[in-house]
Write a structure and sequence with these properties.
By secondary structure, this protein is of the alpha/beta class. It has helices at about 20-30, 60, 70-80; strands spanning about 5-15, 35-40, 40-45, 50-55, 65-70, 85-95, 95-100, 115-120, 125-130.
């Protein structure tokens, strides 16, 4: 039996002060300790199924969810097959490789274009899917 490439899905929570927000989300995650990291000017903390984000620009705030996957290659293949455009990467990020992809307007029947973005982490690698590809 094949196992899914998707490992988990994280809800992105945009906060003004990550330190003030963490106690609530640690409690909601049954006391799980946060994994903290920075990416540019953005501070992040993964705790349970939540990804707390502080200092995000409007563009970053358009990212709706983070998807953790086992392997980045099928994600890249799926983006290309759906007519998506690789805008950036794969390149190194704070937890491994990442890329940013954008939906192509000519493939709107297969690609969700509501302005939201999905981030895909690949065992420490992140893919920002600008325009949301449906998996």
């Amino acid at each position: 039996m094949n196992r899914s490439n998707i490992v988990s899905v994280l809800a992105r929570i945009y906060v003004d002060d990550i330190e003030k927000a963490l106690p609530l989300y640690e409690q909601l995650a049954d006391g799980e300790a946060p994994h903290r990291f920075d990416f540019g000017e953005v501070r992040l903390a993964k705790v349970g199924v939540f990804l707390l984000v502080q200092g995000a620009s409007d563009e970053v705030r358009s990212h709706a969810v983070t998807v953790n996957v086992r392997d980045i290659r099928p994600v890249v293949d799926a983006i290309r097959a759906a007519g998506g455009e690789l805008v950036e990467g794969p390149a190194s990020g704070p937890n491994g490789a990442r890329l940013i992809a954008r939906a192509s307007r000519r493939h709107s029947a297969r690609i969700h274009r509501d302005g939201r973005t999905v981030d895909v982490h690949v065992s420490g690698a992140m893919v920002d899917l600008a325009g949301c590809l449906y998996f």
